[in-house]
Every structure is written in C-alpha cells, then in structure tokens.
Amino acid sequence: MLLTVENLDVCYGHAQVLHDVSLRLNEGELVCVVGRNGAGKTTLLKTIGGFMSPARGTVEFRGERIDGMPLEQVARMGIKYVYQDKRVFSELTVRENLELAAYASGQSLDEAVAKVIAIHPKMGTLLNSKAKGLSGGERQILLIGRALVGDPQLLLVDEPTEGLAAIIIGEIIDILLKMKKRITMVVVEQNLSTVARLADRVYVMKEGVFSREIEDKKTIENPSSYEDQL
Amino acid sequence: MTNFVQSILFGLTIGGILYIISIGLSLTFGAMGIVNFAHGLIYAVGAYAVYTVVTVLGGGFLAGLLAAVVVSIPLSYVIERFVIRRLYGESIDYAIIATYAVLLIGADLLKWIFGASPLPIIDPIGVLWTSGSLVMPVFRLVIIGTSVLIFFGLQLFFKKTLVGKIVVAGLQDREAVRSLGINVEKHFAIVFVMGSALAALGGVLYAPLSTLDPYMGFQILILCFAVVIVGGMGNLKGTAVAAFSLGMVHSLTAAYLASSASDAMVYVVMAAVLVFRPVDT
Amino acid sequence: MFRSVEKNPILTLICIALAFLIYGYATSLPKITDFMIFCIFVIAFDLLYGHMGQLSFGHMLYFGSGAYGCGMFAYHIYPDPFLSILAGVLLGATVAALLGTLVVKTSHAAFALSNLALNEVGAYLVLSPWHKWTGGEDGLSLFFKKYGFINFGESTFRFYFCLVSLLLVVYLMLLLVRSPYGSLLKAIKENEVRVRFLGYNTFLYKYITFIISGAIAAFAGALMSINLSYTNTSLIAPTRNVEVIFAALMGGAGSVIGAVVGGTAFMTISNYLAVYVVRWEMFLGFALLIFVFWFREGIWGYLSKSGGALEKERSNP
Questions:
Q1: pTM for the whole thing?
Q2: What is the ipTM, given to two decimal places?
Q3: Which of A50, A72, A80 has its CB closest to that of B182?
Q4: Any alpha helices (H) in A15-165, and if so which ranges?
Q5: Are B168 and A92 in contact (CB < 8 Å)?
C-alpha cells in the first residue's frame, strides 16, 4: 500500500468539508476522484499533500504518518502537487521555475530540463521566456514537468484539463498516460470522458463523502453509467 | 531655479536613504505578511554604531559603517529567529504588536546606553560641491550614488542567485514554493538579515544629515511604511520609485511650504494610497 | 462567579463601582480618576480591536480630538464644562465620520497603518499650523465654570463624575455587545465576506462602529483635558497608541470588562510600578511580548475561562 487515508474529517473554520473519508492507493495506480464543484475533492488532495491538517483521521505514506507534517517536508518525501490554477512562478523564466524544483529535490538543472523536454519538446524553445508569457496549456505542462523533477512517488493532480482548449487537453491526457505505471497518481477531474481514458479506479465524491468506489474497468469506460450519481 | 535644483537633489538624498531602509521592510511585508516595526530599531542601531566608532572611539567613518553592518547581522538574526519566525501565519495584528515591542525595548536600551539627548555626527567628507550658485555637500551625492548602486546590486541579486529567485517566487506564491519542498522561511531569513544590514547602512548614511536620538527609528519607520505602501508591498522596483517620489514630496514640501510639514505631507500621500488602493493583507 | 458577573449588567456595574471606590479611597482620588478615564479609552479602542477585529494604530487621534475639542471650546468660546465635553465628543465623532469613510474600507495592516499616518498628520496640524487655536507646543491651560456643587476644580467631584461616566459607557457597551448589532459585529470579525454574502452592508456597520468608537475615545479625551485642566500635544501623540493597545491586550480583547480590567491594570503598573522599574519602556516591551506569545486571552479572559471551568466542574462532577 503506497498511501492509506483513514477516516478523514477536514474543516475550514467551523465548516466541515470532508466527513470520514478513507482511501487506499496501490503502487502504480492511477485513481480519479470525481464530483461536483464544492464536493471536497481539492480539499482531499490538499490534505494528502500537506497543505492542511485534518481535524480527525490519518494519512499514511509508505506506512509513515504524514498528516500534520509541514508542506515542504511532505513534498520532500516524494509527494508532489500539480495546481489547478496554473500557479507557475510568473516572474521567473521556465528554466528558473525548473531550477527551483531541481534545487529542492537535489537533481541537476539539466536533468530537470530534460524531463520537461521529454514530455513536451516545444518547451525547449521556451526555456528563457518568463512564465507569465506562456499559454494556459504551456503553463499546465510546465507545472507537471516541475512536479516531475526529482522523481516523485506520488503525484496529486488537481483538475489538469480545466479551462484548456480541446487540442491541449488531448496532449495533457497523453502526458499523464505516458507517466502512468511509472508514477502513482491521484487525479481530481470533472470531465468524465477524461476520467474514462485515465483511471484505474474511480472514487465518486459527494458533499464531502465518498458515495461510490468504481473498480470495474467497463463501468469506468462508460461514464454515462454513473454520471447521474455526481 | 537654483533653489529648485537644490530641492531636487535633497529629495534624491532622502529618497535614496528611504529606499535603502525600505527594501527590507517591503520584502518582509510582501513575502511573509509581517509588518516589522523592529526594522526601525536596526536603523537606529546602525546610526549609533557609527556614532560609537567615530565620536566615542575616534575611528574613521568607514570603520563605523562596517561596525554598523556587522552589529546589525546578529541582532537581526536574533529578531528573526525568536520574534518574526514565531509570527508567520498568525494574525498580522500580533506581528504589529510584537515587533513594536521589540522596537520599544531597543529604543529604551539605546536610551540607557547613550542617553536621551540628541547626538550629532559631523559630515564625514565635509566638502561642498559648487556649481554656479548651487551648493551641495559631496556626502549627499555619495548617498545618492550608493542608493543607485544598491538598486542595481539588488536587481542582480534577485535575478542571478538562487536565494534571490526563491524570494521572488515566494513573493508571488509562498505556498507553491513550499510545495516544491523548499523551506521558504529558512531562505527568507537570509534576505531578512540582508534587508536589516541595509537598514543599518541607511542609519549610518542618515546620521550625518540629522542627529541621533533613541527614538529615531519610530519616525523614519512611518516614512518607510509610506514608501512600502505607495510602492506596493514586495515590489522591488515599486519601492525604489516610491522612495524617490516621496523623497521629492518631502524636500519640495520643505522648500516651498514649511519644513515642518514635510513628514506630514508624506503621511497624507501614504494614507491616500492606502485608502484609494486598498491592499488585502 | 466571573461568568455571572459578565452575564448580569447591573452586577457588573456594581462591581466596577465598588472596585473603583475602594481603590480610589485607598490610594488617591485624582489618580484613580485618571485610571477610569483611561478605561473609557480602552473600551473605545477595544470596540474596534476586540469586537470588530481591526487594530487601529492611531486611536490617539480621536482621544486627542476630544481633548482639543473640549479644550478649545472652553478656552476660546465658553468655559462651560458640559458644553466643552459635548464639543469634544462632537469633534471626535466628526473626525471619525470624515476619516472613517476612507479608512474603514481598508483592513488589517492597511487599517493599522493608515490610522497611524492620520494620527501623525493630526498631531502635526495641532502642533504647528493650527498653533494659534491649539496653543502649539505649550497647549492650553483650562478652567471651567462652577455651578453650585458642580465644580470641576474639585478632585472629588471629578472622581464621581468620571466614575458615573465610566459606568454609563460600560452599560451602553454591554447593551450594544448583546444586541443583534453586537452579534453582527462579531460575525463580521470572524468572516466579513460571509456576512456580506448574507446581504448585509458590512461597510455601514463597520463605519458606524468606527464613529461610535471615535466618539467614546473623544469623550475620554475630553474628560482627560478637564481632569488635567490643560490640553497639550501629549494627548494626541502617536507614540502613545501602544498604551491603549497594551491595555486591551492585557485585559483580554473582545470583552468590555476585560477592557476595564486591562485599563486599570495598565494604569496601576505605569503609575506605581514605573517608579521602581527604571527601564519602563523595556519592561513594557517585554510584557507585550509575553502577552502576544503566551497569554493572548489576557487577565480577564484567563479569569473568566478558569472561573468558567471551575463552575463547570462544580455543576457536573
């Protein structure tokens, strides 16, 4: 078991967002969490990633408790987060964005750059441009590339295709598919046709609880069979 | 006309000093969300250090400058480690109160050691530069030159060094830097000490233009807050522009309105900026 | 016991009155008069800080407006004590109403610093450009008309007048805090955005609160100028803001009784301990740090919490 989440309660101030959520993740799996806006998907991801502490429950990574650990320490254990809102460091160049990631994980800058070029060769031509000049799709790719630096063991991907053009969505999915098997991933996604192509397993989240877990490959590939349960 | 040029040069001097002191304040404010009143203490300590070396011990001004910077480093490290770092993520009100407390303690300590009465320091160069009817102490020109050098030095620092890049990224999105696995606070401490050393340098440069008193940190600090707020918190170029503009406001008010009104005029500009461009902090 | 004091307004007033009477007659009436006036100022400050959640670093401006409003009226127009106090309160409320339209829009750091900046400007105006009316650096020395037993030259009369004033302010504040308006203020402090989404004009509530706080602070300032029989720049000095912040923190922010406890405790320390503590500001600084880092609930918060815990223990053993 790579990741075990048990009986998680998470609150924002007085409002409880997650209620008794449990999740298990095997090495090499790609799990999608689906659900409507405000269902608590991002909160779950952020709690696993160390951005917030649960009010109750535990998060274990390779048998070690990581809930309540500082964010940077969780990241150094090999759990990396890919932001939903394309949060690149806009005042820095693409290369410098990668430089920070490389520094944090002890990899060389060349390796980091090679990694991004491997997933998206065009990045090679953009290395010296400031990140604020990138398109939405390029930013998303930079974010994924940045998270890949240092060979993470678990990738938490928050709505990777949100707000992107159809062509780029296809490319992002291809990138994620290429990474699959090598890296374990939890992907939060609203677009069920994307989920159908990616997921090994799906959790349906509704009002802060998992209302359903889908393991059957056929069901996953046929989203209309559970669409109404969101 | 001469009068006007003179005022402009005076404005540049004050602007330069304000800039040098405000950088640290702006970075702490912008990157860590802390209003740091203790910054004024470091400035005062810098001025008293140069006084001690030059007037008490009879050393040279440059030795005094060096002493000021050297003293400011451990002092600011202690303040960062034991006060500022405990305030990250807390309500900003506690940061204001706690750092103000540090300023109070330090000011009282200075009063204890040096007494409450104002102490003068003589102009270390003591040469006047004249051009036509324009008369200008060379020391003021040195101040302007120093501040320009520091501006370019810092640009280089934030563009070229890893710590600089981490701080630039942290100014925009501290959480994202942490999520890469970088301890922002640790790297920020380096920049905090650097900003403090600059504040001490500001104290050194300002001392010969004015007199020292234990509470000098209070007065300059509010002017520097004005700079930080007008320039945008954590905005390095904005800080420079605001410092020199407010320096102009200061000296032109003194020249054409009343010298006692110049501080108040800067506060008016600051309040106006605060009110009409509300910043959520 | 502490809880029942806080719940019952009449009991609260009786306790406060008794405490100050005993304290006053045991030590010195003029001194305790100062204490009570300062308590009124702390209550005004804490209405913004503890109840509305905004730290002002420039509330001395409103205290000073009250002092100068009162002083200038008595000096230049007519030395009637009541009209002078009224003039002080009106001036404070007017300044708060004018500046409030601007500063209330800001919050947190911007609020604290813009208030400080305005306080600096006010102190400058009083010192220099308006010195003809304010007396500049020398200030104004004041005397007030007597009407029979109403004699503000008498320290005993001033003591009782200020005691009644304090009780009145405490009573009004207790009513205000318990009213729906008070609950709304608390909600704004916790989450202003949510209250705004519920359809309330949060600016208006904060604005009104700012004016009330300014007016009460001015009332304290006016009483202070009467008690001292002068006004000068020390009554509007921006560097003195730390005193009221410290007092509010020490007593326990967000409680009217806490403000009175904090005000009294601060004045006691600064009047009696300052004689022995040579390094007064250093002492104040370290005490502030202790309160910020280890004792945020303040004296009254601590007492009422542990008192409440005791009561709970007794009721369900």
A1: 0.87
A2: 0.90
A3: A72
A4: 41-48, 71-76, 94-105, 109-119, 123-126, 136-148
A5: yes
